[in-house]
Amino acid sequence: xRKIVFAGSASPNVARAIVQKNGYRLGKSExxxxxxxxxxxxxxxxxxxxxxxxxxSIVNPTNDNLVELLFTIDALKRExxxxxxxxxxxxxxxxxxxxxxxxxxxxxxxxxKALEALGCNKVIxxxxxxxxxxxxxxxxxRNISVLPFMATLIREDIKLDLSTVVVGSPxxxxxxxxxxxxxxxxxxxxxHDVITIxxxxxxxxxxxxxxxxxxxxxxxKTVILVDDVATSGGTLLHAAEVCYEHGxxxxxxxxxxxxxxxxxxxxxxNSPISHWYTTNTIESTLEDLSQYSxxxxxxxxxxxxxxx
Length: 308
Description:
Structural class: alpha/beta
Strand order of the largest sheet: 11-10-9-12-13-14-15
């Protein structure tokens, strides 16, 4: 079956890299935005008997990019696409997976139902916030962790004596992510501990949390704090402060998704953190990240290409 890749406006570079690495063809589609902000998607390809692969992160402007994805699926199915696979490098709304307060919706469940109802056949994503979300899908779903890939690249880049390095999670919910990263960083033969910081989030105020206590030893160590996504950066930057208060020599961040709010890159640049590693799962940010010397972006398109 022929395969054609359709690039969503949020992920054009990753889509092109997949095409180049796998020898697929880049499909033509058109997005029309009307004066009332409504949009329309048109597929400009014959897709009968074609495996159509749509690459689109659900990222800021989140609702526009989500609607573009939904409309693209509908257009492909109406034109007779035999199979539609979605590659969603950053699955927006994935952090809204629990009803914290009475009356709240569970947004990620709504999106999954919409994707399935439109007839997509498979979903591939990168480091979704909670792997338990996989249980909501009734179609094939694959979550790929790029944390081992990041650990390898960071180890080669910083060239530190690993005996002076400790890996940590900025909250208790991310301990497993830190362990995955740590295993790749150190290798299977070395025993190592993962430190964590207890955090209390303010449920009535978005992007607000308070670090409470550090579990582990960081004195005279270089700490690599691992997380899946940062928006305000508050959780990780507060955790870094706690590490320094407990005697850490240096703090480095390894965060998969750079879902930054306006002003956050500047906040990182002016923070005590020496370096912030992230990936290109989110291509278009509110600011040009290349102007910030502390922020490095790792290309994960090869990981996605292998999954296809």
